[in-house]
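**User:** Here is a favour to ask of a fellow structure person. Please take any protein you like and set down a full record of it. No explanation is needed for now; the record alone will do.

**Assistant:**
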Amino acid sequence: MVAEISANIRQILENIAARAARAGRDASEIKLLAVTKKVDDNRILEALAAGITILGENYVQEALRKQALLEKWEKPVEWHMIGHLQTRKAALAVRFFDMIHSLDRMELAVELNKRAQATGRTIKVLIEVNSGGEATKSGVSPEQAPDLAKSAASLKNLSLQGLMTIPPPFDEPERARPYFARLRELKEEIAALRIPGVQMKELSMGMTADYLIAIDEGATIVRIGRGIFGERK
C-alpha cells in the first residue's frame, strides 16, 4: 500500500511537470494538495512520507482529530480548509488551519478576522467562487467576488491570496475548461483593481479528474484525493 500511494504521488507530480511545461509554465508554481477526507491516518502518513506537504480537509473536527494523531510527524505540514466553513467554527479554523479556501460571505470574513486578531495571527484565505451557479454548492457568483474582495480587504487579520472553485461535474474533463478559464480571468480582473492588501496569486482549482485542464488555465493549487488514495470507503 505504501508503494501504491508513493507511486500515485510520483505519477501525479510527473503529470504536473509535463503539463506545466506544455503550457509554458514553471511546475514549481503548482502545489499538490492531498485531500484527506475519510482517509485513514496511516495512509496519510504514507503520503507524507512520499513527499506530500499540504493536506486539505473538508471538516474542522476531522482535521483536528487528525492533527492530534499526526503530531509525531516531525516535518512541516500545511493544513488547508477546503470545505464549507460554518461561522461558528471560525475560532477553531483560525487556530488550526494555515489557509482557508472557502470564504464565501462577509459574515464569515468578519468572524475569521475577529478570531485571528484574538490569537495574534493573520489567516490566509481564498474566495470560493460558485462558477457554475449550482444551488447545491457554496461560493459567491463571479459577479459578486470583486465586492467581497474589496470588503474583506479592510479586515487587517485576513490575507486574501486568491480564488477557489469547483466546476460542475462532467464525464469529459475538457468541459470544465471554461469554468477554470473564467476563474483565471476573474483573478486578473480583481488584481487589476489594485485593492490594498489583496494579492490574488493563488488559484485553487482542479481535482483528480480535471487537474491537468486546470493547470492549462493557471491553477496554482490542485486538490487531489482519489488520485492519491484511491476510492474512499
Summary: The chain has nine helices and eight strands. The mean pLDDT is 95. Residues 34 and 52 are 7 Å apart (CA to CA). The longest strand covers residues 158-165.
